[in-house]
Specification:
Blueprint lengths: L2 E3 L6 E6 L9 H8 L2 E6 L14 E4 L14 H15 L4 E4 L1 H9 L3 E17 L1 H5 L9 E14 L4 E6 L7 E4 L3 E4 L9 H5 L3 H11 L3 H30 L2 E3 L1
Parallel strand pairs: 2-3, 2-4, 4-5, 5-10
Antiparallel strand pairs: 1-11, 6-7, 6-8, 8-9, 9-10
Helix pairs in contact: 2-3, 6-7
């Protein structure tokens, strides 16, 4: 008789970061509690990509750059190749957030373009039928608040992809590629100091002021504080769900 359970072994996860302030956030707590370990590679600081064979999964976080800015950030091209090999060839489980969501799409043959309507603030996301019937967003409300901070979006999804969530201005808010890669355009990993830390990133500060005005940072911190408990609960649920998607059958 086969039963399904989350892997009994501890996982060693590679986390690709594009700004030191954009780390796994609240997910760090869950990883520690479960005994999993992770290494962060800070690509924007010139750190090199390691051998992927040493890891059990790949997480790719957000960042202020765009996927097409390869001349300004030459390492982006290598990162896309690395993601494709890790996910499509070696079959590693993948979790992508914001830029990591967009990088997966482009690495696997999709397309990312400048957003017609940038989304910045606490905005509602709506699950699609595929999202509601799948594992990754199970237990989250059909419509739920999220932190959005992006000016680019996935406009063409790779073959073999399901769209799990959407908004009026961004059709692909969450997606699943085959069975092992899950990504979100929004941020689940929000902590109490996330907004404060991200405002220190020049590109983010500028886009925030453009979207929400001179006092945008104060307003966004207030809005985030009101939703912080739900952010943490949803992050934990999505984390558990992601782990469940990579569970293997055991006797």
């Amino acid at each position: 008789i086969f039963i399904f359970k989350i892997r009994s072994i501890f996982m060693h996860i590679l986390v690709l970061q594009h700004a030191k302030e954009e780390h796994p956030g609240s997910f760090r707590k869950f990883l520690k509690e479960d005994g999993h370990t992770w290494d962060a590679v800070e690509l924007d600081a010139g750190e090199n990509l390691p051998l992927i064979d040493s890891y059990d999964a790949l997480w790719v976080m957000g960042g202020p750059m765009d996927v097409w800015e390869e001349e300004k950030y030459p390492w982006l091209k290598k990162e896309k190749e690395f993601i494709k090999i890790a996910v499509a060839e070696k079959g590693l489980p993948y979790l992508g957030v914001c830029l990591g969501h967009q990088l997966l799409a482009e690495s696997l043959g999709g397309k990312v373009e400048k957003a017609k309507s940038p989304e910045i603030g606490i905005l509602d996301v709506h699950q699609t039928l595929d999202g509601q019937s799948g594992v990754f967003l199970d237990g989250l409300p059909d419509t739920f608040p999220t932190l959005q901070w992006h000016s680019a979006e996935v406009t063409v999804i790779p073959e073999g992809t399901q769209v799990l969530a959407t908004t009026r201005d961004c059709a692909v808010q969450a997606m699943r590629w085959q069975t092992r890669a899950h990504t979100v355009q929004f941020h689940l990993e929000v902590e109490e100091d996330t907004i404060k830390n991200w405002v220190g990133i020049p590109e983010y500060s500028k886009s925030l002021e453009t979207a929400l005005g001179e006092n945008g940072a104060v307003r966004l911190r207030q809005d985030a504080k009101l939703n912080q408990r739900q952010f943490e609960d949803m992050a934990e649920r999505a984390y558990i769900n992601w782990m469940q998607t990579i569970a293997k059958p055991s006797l």
